[in-house]
Structures are given as C-alpha cells and as structure tokens.
Amino acid sequence: MIVKAATGIYYQLVDKNGKDLNVGDKLRDFRGNHCILKAPCWPPAHSPGSARVTIGQEAPGYDRCVFPTVIGATWVPVTIESFDDDRR
Q1: How many CB atoms lie within 10 A of CB 85?
Q2: What does pTM read for this prediction?
Q3: In a domain, 87, yes or no
Q4: Which of 35, 38, 66, 85 lies at a C-alpha separation of 20 to 30 Å from 73?
C-alpha cells in the first residue's frame, strides 16, 4: 500500500521484515487476532508515525482505524521511481 503524504512524500506500508503490505492482506494484530488490511485511514501528515491504517474482519462492521504498529507494520518513504504506476 502506497500513499502520498501532505508533504508530497510517498510512503509504502511494510511489515517488520520489510515486505510490502497491500489492501486485502491477512495479518495478525499484536494480540494475535486475525485481521485484514482494508485501507489507509489517513496518510502521514508530517511523519510516518502520524498515519493510520484501517483493519477489520471479513464480516462488515468490525473495521477500526489503528496505528500501523498494531499489525507490526511501519510506513517507509519511497521514491516514485522505486515502484510501478499500477501500485499507486
């Protein structure tokens, strides 16, 4: 999942091993509960730590907006040349 911050910097959501995370990925939160990555809740405003992601269950109504660390993820800056246009 790649988002553009208000500062114009692009960020990629990655797991603790550096693997790109994308909408629909099945993950576990810090409690070990299964969840699905739904969408960015809002992109980084001024630093990667200010962003949130939406996670949920397959059943509707369980979505919540959390810090990426809840799912063991972080936002890392990327350059436009470092990813394909179809991943934006």
Answers
A1: 6
A2: 0.77
A3: no
A4: 85
